[in-house]
Amino acid sequence: MRRRIWLIALVAVVLACATVGFSFLRTPLYEASIKILVGQERGLTQNPADVGGLQQLTKTISQGINSRPIAEAVIQQLDLQITPEEFLEKHLSVEQVPETQFIQVNYIDSSPERAQKVVNTIGDVYAEQLSQVSPTASSITATVWERAVTPNRPASPNPVRDGLLALVLGLMLGAGLALLLEYLGDSWRSPEEAEQISGVPTFGVIPEFKALTGEKGEK
Fold it and tell me: pLDDT (tens digit, 0 to 9) for every residue of the chain, 219 residues total?
């Protein structure tokens, strides 16, 4: 490993530099988020059993947000030049905050203003559609608890983070390559190894040296 430290360093530096350079060439993407609170029309329940039921229902509601009808409604309302499939697969992510009645909705876009506008519209559209589905006094509600703000920095790419990850990966790959080359090499690394492989005792060792270069002196 010590003899091939140059190879390990070379692989790590090249991979890190290539990753950072590629990150700067990518289009910045911005992420805007909202939080939706799932509750009941009569207010937040104090019954522990009802709370558990609402938390389970929150999982179902999160799937409703991440659905084609919501995507189509938002696309039509904002006149987005995008298909529902691309909207759901590449831009939108929905997840329940563990052990709560909150749902976090994230939308990624190359425009920070559009990302904010779209994700806020998603919350409004879903809240309206859910109220139409369950109009009774004890109906389930989805309220936009925390609206999105315009993101001021891109979520990706992150050149520093990507470069550090690539550096670590490069060190691992370089170390693996160095070990592989040592394993495939056919040179003997010590007098003991030469004696063990050849079966002949070692009587002498010639040390490695570099010839001195210089001008010849006058005779």
Answer: 677 788 888 888 999 898 888 877 888 999 999 999 988 765 544 454 555 667 778 888 888 899 999 999 999 999 999 999 999 999 999 999 988 889 999 999 999 999 999 999 999 999 888 888 765 545 778 889 999 999 999 888 888 888 899 899 988 998 888 888 777 766 656 666 666 666 667 666 666 666 555 555 554
Quote the radius of gyration of the chain (alpha carbons, Å).
32
∠ CA 192-195-200 to the nearest 5 degrees?
Answer: 155
The label of the residue with tokens 């029309």 reads 41
Query: 145, 127 in Cβ contact below 8 A?
Result: no
